[in-house]
Amino acid sequence: MRIRRLSIENFRKFRAPVVLDGFSDGLNLVCEPNESGKSTVLEALRAALFERYNSKSGRIRSFRPHGDDVAPTVTVEFEVAGGRWQMAKRFLQGPSVTLDGPDGRFTAEAAEEKLQALLGFNRAGNSGADDDSRGALGLLWVEQGQSFQLGSPAETARRTLEEALASEVGAVTGGRRAKAVQQQVEKALADFYTATGKPTGRLKQAQDAAAASRERASACAQELMQFDEVLKRLETKRNEQRRLVRDIEDPEADKELKALDADIERARRAADALRMADLTCRSATADREALDKRAEVRAGLRAALLKAETAARAALENLNAHAERLAQARRADQAAAEALDTARMQLRQAEELQDKAQAARRSAADRQQLATAFARLDRANGLAAEIARIEARIAGSRMDEAADARLRKLEAAVIATRATLDAGAASLSVTLQPGAAITLDGAPLESGTQISLTRDARIDIPGVGTLAFRPPAGSDASLARHRAASDDLAAFLAAVGHADPAAAHAAARARTQDETARAALRSRLEAECPADPALGLPAGLDALRGALAGRDRPEPLAPDAPQPPAEIDLRPFRTAEIEATARRQAALDSLQKAEVRGVELQGASDRAEGDRLRLAQELAADLAPLPDADLEARQAAARADEARALVDRETAGRAAKALDVEALHQQRERMVKKRERLQADLPNLAGEVARLEEQARTLGGEGPGQRAEAAREEAEAAEATHARLKDEGDALALLLGVLREAQQDAARRYLRPITRRMEPFVRRLLPNASLAFTEDYKPGLLMRGGREEAAELLSKGTQEQLAVLTRIAFADLLIDKGKPASLVLDDALVFSDDDRFEVMTDILADAARRMQVIILSCRASAYRTVDATRLPLG
Amino acid sequence: MRLIHSADWQLGKPFGRMPVDARAALSEARLDAIDTLAAAARQHRAGHVLVAGDVFDSAEPGDRIYRQALARMKAAAGVRWWLLPGNHDPLRPDGLWSRLSAEAPENVAACLTPAPVMLGEDAVLLPAPLTHKFSLSDPTAWFDGAETPAGLPRIGLAHGAIRTFGGDEQTNLIAPDRARRAGLSYLALGDWHGLRKIDGHTYYSGTPEPDDFGREATGLALLVDVAGAGLEPQVEALPIGRHAWVEERWHLSGAEDVAPRIAALAPGIERKHLVARLHLSGLVPLAERVTLRRLLEDGLAHEIRWLDLDLADLMTRPTETDLSEIDAHGELRDAAERLRAMAEDGGTEGRLAGAALERLYVELMRAQRGSEA
Question: Chain B, 310-329: which have a CB under 8 Å from a chain A CB?
Answer without folding.
Answer: 327, 329
